[in-house]
Design brief:
The complex is a heterodimer of chains A (406) and B (270).
Chain A (H helix, E strand, L loop, with lengths): L6 H5 L7 E2 L2 E5 L2 H17 L3 H15 L5 E3 L1 H7 L3 E6 L9 H14 L4 E6 L3 H13 L2 E7 H6 L1 H9 L3 E5 L6 H14 L4 E3 L10 H9 L1 H13 L6 E5 L4 H7 L9 E7 L12 H4 L1 E5 L1 E6 L24 H9 L2 E6 L1 H15 L5 H15 L6 E6 L7 H7 L5
Parallel strand pairs in A: 4-14, 5-6, 5-8, 6-7, 9-10, 9-14, 10-13
Antiparallel strand pairs in A: 1-2, 2-12, 3-4, 11-12
Chain B lengths: L2 H12 L3 E7 L8 H10 L5 E4 L10 H12 L4 H14 L5 E5 L1 H7 L1 H11 L3 E4 L11 H6 L3 E3 L1 E2 L5 H10 L4 E4 L12 H14 L4 E4 L5 H10 L2 E4 L1 H9 L4 H21 L3
Parallel strand pairs in B: 1-2, 1-9, 2-3, 3-4, 4-5, 6-7, 7-8, 8-9
The chains are: A alpha/beta (406), B alpha/beta (270).
Chain lengths: 406, 270
């Protein structure tokens, strides 16, 4: 089914308990409830506070370097031979990804709430770097939890975080990836809840995180909408973004929810192929359940144990997804698809060689799907890819796959 | 009156405190769990909290995380845990059993099927760590309709307003988490616990059992003095980990740990 969304409907989402339809909510142990309710109350107040918003806008302009460009990828368009392909250049933000939009906002919240200690989880390390960066700037103590496997495959980002003054805690429990990092961050938070602000990196987790992360990331879509109208003279026909937790996708999609003519495509990590079970695509092949404080689509076994995931991209290697995406899937407003590791690597190489833009492996999933999608569309159509991050952090992974030692 | 209410009332009439040990079902192996439950009862347990293993136990420290991993290596599922309770009931129909775990395995089984099976197996209460009452409107009525006690957590951070609201959703007893942290940590402050439990008693008529940080006869007695019962988890689970290869020694070690707590708690009565 597909329903037409209106501004009035969006104003009621999430509801007062943080629900997007059947999804979202606040599934945490009692110790955290008071902090989450305080955070919600304070955020809803600050959201309307001109001083807070002015500070946020100032930081985005002068520290992050916004607006990021919307760029027409003329050569890629020619090679694909279909719709015009445009790139929203979040990779050009300070620290090289969209993640900093959110960490600027949450660190500002932490300051307004008087918290001096910050914790974060990270997968690829982009959110960890973005958190360590804003903590360095504001003089906040920073602890980043990162799966031991990710610490290995993203060693460059680990060193960046350390240079920025953060303490990186490798997590050796469970599958040693992003979900386990989030478990340990939650455990730290429950222990140090009085003085600690938890900066969650994606639109998942207990309410109000999916709401506030979406609000902070929505600048991507707002700019894209404005830029596209100005540069192309009309709205785009399709938006494509990769989905792990889904923050860059929600940030891009949200300001277009009520624009019925704009199709939304979220691209999940198909890993070795959905049919192999070795992937990280809960919206494509999972079912609803409860993890990390929210109800959402999950990868789990028949007994409700969370499955281990696989993706070449550490940032997408997560068994859940933001609850708003689960809702968008069910109401049919967005399409969720997947591409494999190999397709993503092909997307990585193509964008690098054809446009001179090296995308993160996460982003490469969106590139790969766009090449298929645009090829099937008329030449007068416009597709915008959210280039959520740059690929420098991934060159070791790509070199290793090529059998090259750097 | 539920089995839990009955036990709590009888203890109160005798001026005694409840001893509530926790073990993770399926740890160290599924075929040992029922035997260990009987061992706990023989060593003085009034109620048993039986943990349902979960892949992502966010509220637990390393000791119970590892117990979950050991149980899951054997594929211990919620259905199997219910089967263990059913077997336990064949020879013990008086000791209440509370299942403690996370929501997702129950959701995967289906809440109604789970509630039916819990009753059929002889489960008395359900404590879902990541289910605050605000999110329990789907599940709690299924428990209430079947006379299963829904047990909720209270924490040092819980406001008065919430203590009252949560207690209204709760039956059997409320579980007071003694400190901010995960299971197995040791930062319990008995004076703070005493003050908070006294305050909780002013806001609800339910018995208050205290968990987190109780590791020996001394802490059990200190916390028992100010509450209606103590829950002992990580120290037992750690004992299971250290004796997992020797079932006979394991039973003895658990008994040696629990029995002095029983004596210390009963010493409070005289």
């Amino acid at each position: 089914m597909s329903i037409k969304l209106t501004e009035d409907m969006l104003a009621m989402l999430p509801d007062t308990r943080g629900h997007f339809g059947d999804y979202g909510g606040r599934f945490v142990s009692e110790t955290l409830m008071d902090s989450l309710m305080t955070l919600e109350k304070e955020y809803l107040r600050l959201k309307k506070d001109p001083e807070f918003q002015a500070q946020f806008d100032y930081d985005l302009a002068h520290y992050v370097g916004r607006p990021s460009p919307l760029y027409f990828a003329e050569r890629l368009t020619k090679v694909v031979g279909g719709a015009q392909i445009w790139l929203k250049r979040e990779d050009l933000n300070h620290t090289g990804a969209h993640k900093i939009n959110n960490t600027i906002g949450q660190a500002l919240l932490a300051s307004f709430l008087g918290k001096k200690r910050v914790i974060a989880e990270t997968g690829a390390g982009q959110h960890g770097v973005a958190t360590a960066t804003v903590c360095a700037r504001l003089g906040l103590e920073c602890h980043v939890f990162m799966g031991a496997e990710d610490v290995q495959r993203q060693s460059l980002n680990v060193f960046r975080m350390k240079l920025l003054g953060a303490q990186v805690h490798p997590v050796t429990s469970g599958t040693r990836t992003l979900k386990d990092a989030m478990n340990d961050a939650m455990r730290d938070w429950v222990t140090n809840v009085d003085d600690t602000f938890y900066i969650i990196g994606t639109v998942a987790g207990p309410h109000p995180y999916p709401l506030l992360v979406r609000d902070f990331q929505a600048v991507i879509g707002r700019e894209t909408r404005e830029q596209c109208l100005k540069q192309a003279g009309r709205l785009p026909d399709a938006l494509v973004a990769c989905v792990g937790g889904g923050s860059n996708a929600i940030g891009m999609f949200y300001p277009f929810f009520t624009d019925e003519s704009v199709e939304l495509y979220g691209v999940e990590a198909g890993g070795l192929g959905i049919e192999t079970g070795k992937h990280a695509a809960p919206l494509s092949a999972g079912r609803p359940g409860v993890l990390h404080g929210n109800r959402t689509y999950l990868m789990e076994d028949e007994n409700g144990q969370i499955s281990s995931t696989h993706s070449v991209s550490a940032g997408l290697d997560y068994p859940g997804v933001g609850p708003e995406h689960s809702w968008l899937k069910d109401i049919g407003r967005a399409h969720y698809v997947s591409v494999t590791d190999d397709e993503a690597l092909d997307g990585f190489r193509k964008l690098t060689r054809i446009e001179g833009i090296m995308p993160a492996l996460e982003t490469a999933h969106a590139v790969a799907y766009t090449m298929k999608l645009a090829a099937e569309m008329d030449k007068d159509k416009i597709v915008v890819i959210n280039v959520s991050g740059r690929g420098d952090k991934d060159i070791h992974t790509v070199a290793q796959l090529d059998g090259i030692e750097l | 009156m539920s089995r839990i209410e009955g036990v709590m009332k009888a203890l109160k009439d005798q001026g005694r405190k409840a001893l509530i040990p926790y073990i993770t079902a399926g740890d160290p192996a599924p075929d040992q769990t029922v035997g260990l439950m009987h061992t706990l009862v023989a060593a003085g347990a009034d109620i048993i909290e039986l943990g349902v293993p979960f892949s992502d136990p966010m509220a637990d420290g390393p000791v119970i995380q590892h117990a979950c991993e050991r149980a899951l290596v054997h594929g211990t599922s919620l259905r199997q845990v219910l089967g263990m309770v059913k077997t336990f009931r064949e020879t013990d129909d008086s000791t209440p059993v509370v299942l403690m775990g996370y929501l997702n395995p129950m959701e995967a089984m289906g809440f109604e099927a789970f509630a039916d099976s819990a009753v059929d197996s002889g489960v008395d209460g359900i404590l879902t760590v990541d289910l605050p009452p605000e999110e329990a409107d789907q599940v709690a009525p299924l428990f209430t309709a079947r006379h299963l006690d829904a047990i909720f957590l209270l924490a040092p951070t819980t406001t008065d307003e919430r203590i009252s609201a949560i207690s209204e959703h709760c039956s059997g007893y409320v579980y007071y988490v003694s400190f901010k942290g995960v299971t197995g940590a040791s930062n319990i402050n008995v004076e703070e616990v005493a003050a908070k439990v006294k305050h909780i008693h002013e806001l609800t008529a339910l018995p208050v059992a205290v968990g987190f940080g109780i590791r020996d006869a001394e802490t059990a007695a200190a916390v028992g003095w100010v509450s209606d019962g103590v829950i002992v988890g990580s120290v037992l689970v750690d004992t299971i980990a250290r004796n997992q290869d020797d079932p006979a020694q394991l039973k003895k070690a658990l008994t040696d740990l629990l029995h002095p707590m029983r004596q210390a708690l009963d010493g409070l009565a005289s």
